[in-house]
TrEMBL record:
The keyword Oxidoreductase does not apply. Pfam families: G5, LysM, Peptidase_M23. Residues 278-359 form the G5 domain. InterPro entries: Cell_wall_metabolism_enzyme (IPR050570), Dup_hybrid_motif (IPR011055), G5_dom (IPR011098), LysM (IPR018392), LysM_dom_sf (IPR036779), M23ase_b-sheet_dom (IPR016047). The lineage of its organism: Bacteria, Bacillati, Bacillota, Bacilli, Bacillales. The chain crosses the membrane at residues 21-42. GO terms for molecular function: metalloendopeptidase activity. Residues 227-272 form the LysM domain. This is Metalloendopeptidase. Keywords: Membrane, Signal, Transmembrane, Transmembrane helix.
């Protein structure tokens, strides 16, 4: 089908020349003054006859004369057969344009072998192909539109999956509205190439036609581009060249003044070459996820609660929100994310903590509370066993908790040979109290303790005959009877 136009042209040229020769022959016969009969006799007597020869031209240049124009077609077929096995499956044709002009002559002076030999060197084999032009680079050719579409698909599948691509194409072809995303669903929203990959049909030498895989490799590999490289610790010319797939000699050519003896400096800039892909694939995904809305931790101040004390008034609980994002990937690597839509499904419950602001009183009121949880006085202040008992003993309480009798500051805690574990509290009003024989201590020196604060646990440490609290009260440094101030 590719030669129909040329064959019609050649046929018209032959017909035109043949008619021309007929006219010229007719005029010549008239003016020669020779009758038809005598002319016929001459042809018959000397054995001469009219022959057709074929003048061959290409690109306006004369090639030679042939005795038979069919030899041109035979030569074309021979040339196509020579390469047919090498390019199996590719429709081949002769790309050289030939013009054949017939002529009627009496004497044949052709050299078919020579002319056919010259024609053989002029004939070029071509094939219809689809070219992909990228910028000013040489086009990349594939066999046909089927291969072109396969190439586009193969490039896309480097970033997306087969299923994603099939579903994406189905949504594009559908006339139905695209359904909203479901929770935790991700789908391909768009796919695009970094350059326009328009296909152009044309003829080309068959050896330039690439398979789909070859074309994809060329597009991925790209071309060498010159870039800057900053020297890092441990770099040498050889390692830099190797990392950029180039020789050390080429690296030095790109950087005049640099030699193998040059001492490289950190952050020094060198020219290197890197392969830049001819085309990159960018895919846009839309994804819908349910995400928590973190609760806040809020604080409320309460003047009725002592400073340093706090309690959780309301437990916190995360909320929930639906977030639709656009995720951009280039050649399979995520290069960006953006929020397209966001809806709150459940508001968070914020945690509320009450913090006391009331200043703890360190000065006593002068009114002393009972330092134990109930109990009775098992031994009063005064002489006992030949010595003075400086305080009172409290035994058999409801619980073993010991409380500070009035506001004050802890001035002494620790072990005493007689008192065992003891606590001394000054009330900053001339009074001090002492708590002895404790099994454990809950306060430390310097701590402010409001009246009623639990400061320890009743025990039987030190010189003790049983579990009880030994309690003393001092006024201006002297022991006084605790029962005189306890309420």
């Amino acid at each position: 089908m590719f030669f129909k136009g040329r064959e019609m042209k050649e046929h018209k040229e032959r017909s035109f020349l043949y008619k021309k020769i007929q006219k010229v022959g007719f005029i010549t016969i008239l003016f020669a003054g020779i009758g038809i009969s005598s002319g016929y006799a001459l042809e018959k007597n000397d054995g001469s006859s009219i022959h057709t020869v074929y003048h061959v031209y290409t690109d306006g240049q004369y090639v030679g004369m042939l005795s038979d124009d069919k030899k041109i077609e035979l030569l074309k077929e021979e040339e196509l057969q020579k390469v047919a096995s090498e390019f199996e499956g590719i429709p081949l044709e002769i790309g050289t344009e030939l013009s054949v002009v017939p002529e009627k002559v009496f004497t044949v002076g052709t050299d078919d072998e020579k002319v056919l030999g010259e024609l053989q060197g002029l004939l070029s084999v071509e094939a219809e192909a689809v070219g992909i032009q990228i910028g000013e680079d040489t086009p990349i050719y594939v066999r046909d539109m089927t291969d072109y579409e396969e190439l586009i698909k193969a490039l896309a599948l480097q970033t997306v999956t087969e299923q994603e691509l099939v579903e994406f194409e189905a949504r594009k072809q559908s006339t139905e509205p695209i359904p909203p995303l479901k929770e935790n669903e991700t789908r391909l929203a768009n796919i695009q190439f970094s350059v326009d990959l328009q296909a152009t049909e044309g003829r080309v030498a068959p050896e330039k036609i690439r398979s789909v895989q070859e074309a994809k490799t060329i597009l991925n590999k790209g071309t060498l581009e010159e870039k800057k490289y900053a020297i890092e610790p441990g770099d040498v010319l050889g390692s830099i060249a190797s990392a950029h797939n180039m020789s050390t000699a080429t690296l030095m050519e790109l950087n005049p003044g640099i030699s193998e003896d040059t001492v490289l400096q950190i952050d020094q800039q060198l020219n290197v070459t890197v392969l830049e892909p001819l085309v990159e694939v960018e895919a846009h995904y839309e994804t819908k996820e349910i995400e928590p809305i973190q609760f806040k931790k809020l604080t409320e101040k309460d003047e009725s609660v002592f400073k340093g004390e706090k309690r959780v008034k309301q437990e916190g609980a995360d909320g929930r929100k639906s977030v639709t994002r656009i995720v951009r990937k280039k050649n399979g690597t995520v290069i960006g994310k953006s929020v397209a839509e966001e809806h709150v499904l459940e508001e968070p419950v914020h945690e509320v903590t009450v913090v006391g602001t009331k200043v703890m009183p360190s000065r006593g009121t002068g009114n002393f509370m009972w330092p134990a949880d109930g109990g009775y006085v098992s031994s009063q202040m005064g002489k006992r066993w030949g010595r003075v008992h400086q305080g009172i003993d409290i035994a058999r309480p409801s619980s073993r908790s010991i409380f500070v009798a009035d506001n004050g500051v802890v001035t002494d805690v620790g072990w005493h040979s007689t008192y065992g574990n003891r606590i001394v509290v000054t009330h900053n009003n001339g009074y001090e109290t002492l708590y002895a024989h404790l099994s454990s201590i809950n306060v430390k020196v310097g701590q402010t303790v409001p009246q009623g604060t639990k400061i320890g646990v009743m025990g039987s440490t030190g010189r003790s005959t049983g579990m009880h609290l030994h309690f003393e009260v001092f006024k201006n440094g002297s022991n006084i009877n605790p029962l005189n101030v306890l309420r």
